[in-house]
């Protein structure tokens, strides 16, 4: 190995200490709240057949066209590190024959991979939590999945800092009409569009609305919105969704500029945005994807869901909002090597009884007491020759500085109190 120090790959991070605890708190909270809404957790592979993500020629999203980790494995198959988990969940629904037992409500948490330019809140390996309701066409599902996402942010104490922005992308008919109107609008300004957007104009003009380019954004400001092109069905879905959000007590703002980064959405599209994370302002995003399960080879399965970046949610947590620290330890101390065996039995009986405990690996009584104090142990259990013979230990309360003799049998009970 060269003498150069090894570093984590660009755009990846080690989660250690407080950083891990914050991360863990987000996932634990999301797990608990999503269960209250009836979601069951799934875990799908972190790599999939590339076709799960790149479906046909229509794919124009940045994620699929520029950001995927695609490689050929040793068997010559093209596989991709998942950039998101919705496609994997839909694939799993079909692979496992679960399209016969709908609806399903699925929660997931895990790492995702995108080849992006790393910056604060944007990584190449990051983590998402997500919730999907599969097999429900009613806008009640859209509202419920959003309410769950909002509830998670409330529970994390960060809902105040983010705003829910919702939009409708209509059904296919609405979108076709809207697309024609957009093509008309942007074609008139073709030369002022960014190179990317000129390409989008051909392939998927809706994407232009999502462009981050300054020049594009000016043209987008005068572009028509979809409202005038909604079919009665699409309008009904949109109206009912907003009523349901009110009924669930979820505050929101309408934003006709939300189209979302992935190509498969219809009807509802939404984002929770914050101004507290600089350029990386979207913490949670999602929408309805009625055609995706079918693209995976399943039957038509109207579905809706969201994903949220765990790192971004964790960045919003205050320093004081960490997962409670690990329980304070009890430190078991054999006075000499002869008592080590007895001390080890005591140690295991504590752990079996649900008491967090440790024993040092070496050192005399003084060294071991120092270690117990240094790790902020709540008690030291001293096992000397006389104690070992009588089945007792000296229990020293390290906070109070008091010491008493306690029978080994009574220890768990005593330390639980
Ligand atoms: P952005 O506009 O920030 O690139 P996106 O539209 O690509 O986001 P989605 O595909 O909707 O994001 O993913 C949902 C959430 O996952 C985002 O809102 C964000 O919180 C998080 N996320 C996406 N990409 C990254 C990344 N590279 N690093 C960290 N978090 C990410
Ligand atoms: Mg992105």
Could you name the key traits of this structure?
binds magnesium ion, 417 residues, five-stranded mixed beta sheet, alpha+beta, binds adenosine-5'-triphosphate, 2 domains, Rossmann fold
Describe this structure in words.
The protein has helices at 18-36, 62-66, 86-95, 139-155, 172-187, 195-203, 214-221, 232-247, 292-295, 310-316, 340-352, 365-374, 385-390, 411-416; strands at residues 40-41, 47-49, 69-72, 78-81, 104-113, 125-134, 162-168, 253-254, 266-274, 282-288, 303-309, 330-334, 357-359, 379-383, 392-397, 403-407. It has 417 residues and is an alpha+beta fold. The protein folds into two domains: 18-171 and 231-319, 2-Layer Sandwich (BirA Bifunctional Protein, domain 2); 330-416, 3-Layer(aba) Sandwich (Rossmann fold). Residues 63, 84, 114, 116, 121-123, 126, 128, 261, 280, 282-285, 307-309, 311-312 line the site of adenosine-5'-triphosphate.
